[in-house]
TrEMBL record:
Gene Ontology molecular function: any one: ATP binding
Primary location recorded for the protein, binned into one broad class: membrane
Organism: Paenibacillus roseopurpureus
Annotated Pfam families: ABC_membrane, ABC_tran
Membrane topology: Multi-pass membrane protein
One cellular component term from this protein's GO annotations in UniProt: plasma membrane
Transmembrane segments: 18-38, 58-84, 130-152, 158-178, 237-258, 278-299
Keyword flag Plastid: no
ABC transporter domain ranges (all copies): 352-585
Domain (ABC transmembrane type-1) ranges: 30-301
PANTHER family xrefs: ABC TRANSPORTER, ATP-BINDING CASSETTE SUB-FAMILY B
Coiled-coil zones: none
Location relative to the cell: Cell membrane
Protein name (database record): ABC transporter ATP-binding protein
Amino acid sequence: MTTFHYLWRLITYRPMRYILNAVMWTLIYLAPIVPGLVTKQFFDTLTGHAALGFTVWGLIALLMAAALGRIGLIVLGFITDVHFRFRMGMLLRRNLLEHVLKQPGAQAIPVAPGEAISHFRDDVDQSEEAASWSVDVFGMTCFALVSGYILIRIDAQMTLLVFMPIVLVITAAQLATVRLQKYRAASREATSKVTGEISEMFGNVQAIQVAGAEKRVISRFRDLGDERRKAMIKDRLMGELLDSVFTNSVNLGTGLLLLLAGAKMRAGTFTVGDLSLFVYYLTFVTQFISNVGKFITYFKQMSVSLERLTFLLQGASAKVLTMVRSLHLHKDEAQEETDADPGVKATPLQELEVNGLSYAYPDTGRGIRDIHLRLTRGSFTVVTGTIGSGKTTLIRSLLGLLPKGEGSITWNGVPVEDPGTFFAPPQSAYTAQVPRLYSDTLRNNILLGQAEQSGALSQALHAAVMEQDVAQLPLGLDTVVGPRGVKLSGGQAQRTAAARMLVRDAELYVFDDLSSALDVETEQKLWARLFERREDATCLVVSHRKTALTRADHIIVMKDGVIEAEGTSAELLKRSQTFRELWYGDKRKG
Ligand SMILES: Nc1ncnc2c1ncn2[C@@H]1O[C@H](COP(=O)(O)OP(=O)(O)OP(=O)(O)O)[C@@H](O)[C@H]1O
C-alpha cells in the first residue's frame, strides 16, 4: 500500500467527519480575508483613495468581532479535529491489536513488548498527524487561492514576489525529505531499541544480578542511549533546518515587498491600503508556507510509520490497519459483539489424533517433523526427550500457539481448522513451561476473569498441591503476587499456573514440563490428585521424570524434532537408547 493510499483509507474511514472538519478549518483559514479587505478600505479612506462609512472605533470593533468570530471557529475546529483524529487513531490501534491477538500466542509480535508499545503509540500518532494536517492544507490552499486572486487583481508583480518563496520552500522541502525520512526512521528505530532494552532490563533484574552483569547492561544501555541521542539530533536538526528555510524565505518575501512597495507608491500605482492588505495577508501566507512544508514532512514521516506498523503485521496486508470496523464507542455495540460470540464448544473428547504435524522456525529451520500421535479419553501421554528435541514445539504447534505448519489434527474424527481458537477451555487447558503471573491477587491470577463458583477454586488449589502455600501467604488468596507483589517461588508459580488450568473444567490438560520446578513428592501428589478429581481427564504432559513416566499409558520419545520411539516405559527401556539415558540419568531425582 502506498502512503497516499494509506492516507486516503484513513480519511475515508469516517468521510462525513473528515468533511465537517475540512469545512471548519477552511472557514478558519478563510476568515482573515474579510478583516484584510476592511483594513485596506480604512487606509484607503485615510489617504483619500476611497470612502468608508465608519470611524477608527468602528474599525476596531469590526476587527475585534472578526477576531472573536475566528476564535469561536477555532474552538469548534478543534472539537471536530479531536473527534476525527481520535477515531482514526483508535481504528489503527484497534485493528493492530486485534491482529496481534489473533496471531499464534507464541509469535504474536515480532519485537520486544516495549518496542511494540512504541509502534502503537508513536506510529499511530504520526499517521493521525498527517491525516489531520491534510485538512489544514486544503483550508490554506483555499485561502491562498482567494487571497491570491484578490492580490493579483491589485498588483500581479507584487503578488508573484509574495508567493515565490512558497515555490522555493516546497522545492527545498521536497529535496530534503528523502534525507529527513532516513533520519526519522533511524531515530524511531533507536527509540524503540531503548524502550525495548528498558523493558528487558526490568523483566530480567534477577538474571542480571545473578550474572553480575549490571555494569555491562548499563554500558549497553548507555550505548543505545548515545545512538538514540545522535539519531534524534540529526532528525531534529533536519526538521528545524527545514522550518528555518520556510520562515526565512517568507522574511525575504516581506523585504522584497517593502522595497517594491516604496517605489510603486511614489509612482502612485500602489496605495497604503494595498500595502496594508499585502502585509496583512503575508502573515497568513507565511503560515500557509510553513504548514504545507509541515504537511509534506508529516506525510513523509507517515510513510516510515506505515512501514513500521506493517512490520508488526508479520506478513499480513497493510490493509488490515485501515479495515473499517466499529470502535465500540457505544455500550450497546460492544455488548452485541460479546453476545454474538458464543465461543467454540466441541463434543466431549473421545479421541484426538495428530497426523504428519511439522513446524520449522523460520529463523533457525529447526522444529518438529512428521509427528503422529493419538490420545484417547482418560489417557496419560508423556512426551519426553533430550534438551531441544522439540517437545515444547510439539505442544505449541498442536495447541495453535505457533503458526500452522503441515499436518492435520482431528478431534473425535472432526478436523480442527483453527487450533489456536479451538484449544481453549472447555476443550483444553494448558500450563506453559514458564508461567506468567500478573501483579494482582492470587485469586484473580487463578480465575483470570472467570466467575468464582463455589468450591471450584479450593478444589483446583488442592489438586495443584497449593493449599498449604496459600495458608502461609499473609492475605491468603487475596495476597497480591506477581512482579509488583509477593514473589512466588518457581514451583509456587508453576502450581499457581496449574491451578489456573484446573479451575477451568477442560477435556484435555496439557502440561509443559511442570517437573522443572517441583520436587518429586509434590509432583507425585499433583498427578494423584488430578486423577482422583477426574478419572476421565486426558493429559498430555512434557516430562522427563520417572514420576510421570511410570504413570504414563503411552510415552513419546523425541529426538532432533522427530519421534524416535514410543511405547510404555517397560517397552522403551528395552528398545530405546535415548529413553534409557533419560531414565537412568534421572536416578538422582527419583
Ligand atoms: N523461537 C524459536 N526460534 C527459533 N528456533 C527455536 C525457537 N524455539 C525453539 N527453537 C529451536 O527448535 C528446537 C526445538 O526446541 P524446543 O523448545 O521445542 O525443544 P524442547 O525439547 O522443548 O527443549 P527443552 O527441553 O529445553 O524445553 C531447538 O533446536 C530450538 O533451538
